[in-house]
Each structure stands twice: as structure tokens, then as C-alpha cells.
């Protein structure tokens, strides 16, 4: 659902192998006051504990917290998925669901990106960073189709180029840059939009579970 009080823009970030280094470099360039929040899906082992929020909090001026089910999104906060969950965005609210130890890498970047595109429309941003495989490729297509913006780490600068390469192959990325250049360029491109609020289409106001099932 959309409360009307959440951030204007939701930036969903996906990463896997090599992702902690990339996430740290990305969020080190973040600044407050852009009426946006970050929702981070880093592939993690379901059986491990994670200190990722603590690591990221050391390098960014934004508040970094572990994502929890039902949490309302607020600006200038980074929400990090804990291990053994799948995470989606429903308007201004996070949905965090436990998953089993077997199956695809968790959390699913495709599902996160798709949910952000469905519920945020033109105010959705997807950033895909270092990783192996192709998780995130279907998700960036969903964000692009919804009118949002897609940024991908330049594969040449990524520790693992599989996920960035798969996303680029879809033809949907608006930006392909070294990780430290992504947020400054996003601000240059998107900040002029802040003077005019674009209402999401009626079909984007609530998330349809059937649409998410298509990317599992």
C-alpha cells in the first residue's frame, strides 16, 4: 500500500558475489536530502548471520537498518535484507518473507526490482551491481517497462561481471558506469524531476502477487 508519506523515490539495489565491496563504494557517494531511500538485496547464505548493515553504516551518511516486514519506508534510510528472506516493496511498505534453505539465491533481486517497478512506476530506480548469474535481469526489464530508471555497474569495474552483463544484454539500462559514478549521475538525471511529481498509474498503486510469481 502507499501511505502518501514515504520517499518520492525508491532505489532498489541488487548484488551478489563481490557485492559488499560494490555496495560500500556506491553508498559512500550517497548524500541526504534527495527524498529517496535505498532497499538492498545482497545474496546471502540462509544459514549465516549478516553484519552487512554495520559495515555499510561505516561508509555512508545515510541511516542503515535491517529490513523488517511491515516497515514503512522513509527518506535517507538504507534497508538491508537479512539472511533467509525474500524482500519486496509494496508502495511505501516493506514485505519480508522467510524462505527455505534450498532454492534460488536469496533474496531474489528480480522479485525486489519487479515489486518496486509495479508499485512506484516512474519513481522506481534499479541499480544492479557485481554478481554471478542473471538474477536482476528480468527485474530491470520490469522497472524499465514501468517508466523507472535502470543503472548497472560497468562490468569492467565489477569483481564479477555476470549479473551486470546479463542486465546489459536486455537492452534496458539507462546508465552503465563504474560504481562510484552511479549515484552522482542519477542525481544529475533525476533531481530535475523533483519539481514535478508524477502520480503512478492506477495499476501501480498496489502490488499484484501474480505479477511477482512470474519472475520466480
Task: Explain what this protein looks like in three dimensions.
The chain has 216 residues and is α/β, with parallel strands linked by helices. Helices cover 28% and strands 22% of the residues. It is built from seven helices and nine strands; from the N terminus they run βαβαββββαβαβαβαα. The strands form two sheets. The protein has a seven-stranded parallel beta sheet, with helices on both faces. A two-stranded antiparallel sheet has the order 5-6. Strand 1 (9-15), helix 1 (19-27) and strand 2 form a beta-alpha-beta unit. Helix 4 runs parallel beside helix 5. The longest helix is centred in the middle third of the chain and has 12 residues, at 109-120. The two termini are 22 Å apart. The model is unreliable at 195-206 (pLDDT under 50).
Topology overview:
Elements lengths: L8 E7 L3 H9 L8 E7 L9 H6 L5 E4 L10 E4 L4 E6 L2 E6 L10 H12 L3 E5 L8 H9 L3 E5 L8 H8 L5 E3 L1 H12 L18 H5 L3
Parallel strand pairs: 1-2, 1-7, 2-4, 3-4, 7-8, 8-9
Antiparallel strand pairs: 5-6
Helix pairs in contact: 1-6, 3-4, 4-5
The shape, in one word, is globular
Q: How can the largest sheet be summarized?
A: 7 strands, parallel
Measured as a percent range, the helix fraction is 25-40%
Report the order of strands and helices: EHEHEEEEHEHEHEHH
What proportion strand? 15-25%
Structural class: alpha/beta
Q: Mean of the pLDDT scores?
A: 89
Please tally the helical runs, counting DSSP H or I stretches of 4 or more residues: 7
Distance between the termini: 22 Å
Strand order of the largest sheet: 3-4-2-1-7-8-9
Can you tell me the residue ranges where pLDDT is under 50 for at least 5 consecutive residues? Answer: 195-206
Radius of gyration: 15 Å
Total number of strands: 9
Amino acid at each position: 500500500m502507499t501511505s502518501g508519506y514515504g520517499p518520492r523515490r525508491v532505489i532498489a539495489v541488487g548484488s551478489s558475489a563481490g557485492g559488499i565491496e560494490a555496495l560500500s563504494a556506491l553508498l559512500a557517494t550517497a548524500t541526504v536530502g534527495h527524498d529517496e531511500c535505498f532497499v538492498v538485496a545482497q545474496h546471502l547464505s540462509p544459514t549465516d548471520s549478516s553484519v552487512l548493515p554495520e559495515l555499510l553504516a561505516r561508509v555512508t551518511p545515510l541511516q542503515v537498518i535491517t529490513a523488517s516486514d511491515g516497515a514503512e519506508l522513509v527518506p535517507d534510510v538504507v534497508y538491508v535484507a537479512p539472511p533467509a528472506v525474500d524482500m519486496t516493496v509494496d508502495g511505501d511498505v516493506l514485505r519480508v518473507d522467510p524462505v527455505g534453505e534450498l532454492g534460488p539465491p536469496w533474496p531474489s533481486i528480480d522479485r525486489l526490482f519487479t515489486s518496486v517497478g509495479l508499485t512506484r512506476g516512474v519513481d522506481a530506480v534499479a541499480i544492479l551491481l557485481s554478481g554471478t548469474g542473471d538474477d536482476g535481469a528480468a527485474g530491470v526489464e520490469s522497472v524499465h517497462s514501468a517508466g523507472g530508471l535502470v543503472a548497472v555497474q560497468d562490468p569492467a569495474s565489477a569483481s564479477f561481471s555476470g549479473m551486470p552483463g546479463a542486465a546489459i544484454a536486455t537492452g534496458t539500462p539507462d546508465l552503465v558506469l563504474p560504481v562510484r559514478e552511479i549515484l552522482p549521475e542519477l542525481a544529475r538525471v533525476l533531481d530535475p524531476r523533483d519539481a514535478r511529481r508524477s502520480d503512478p498509474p492506477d495499476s501501480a498503486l498496489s502490488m499484484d502477487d501474480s505479477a511477482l510469481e512470474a519472475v520466480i
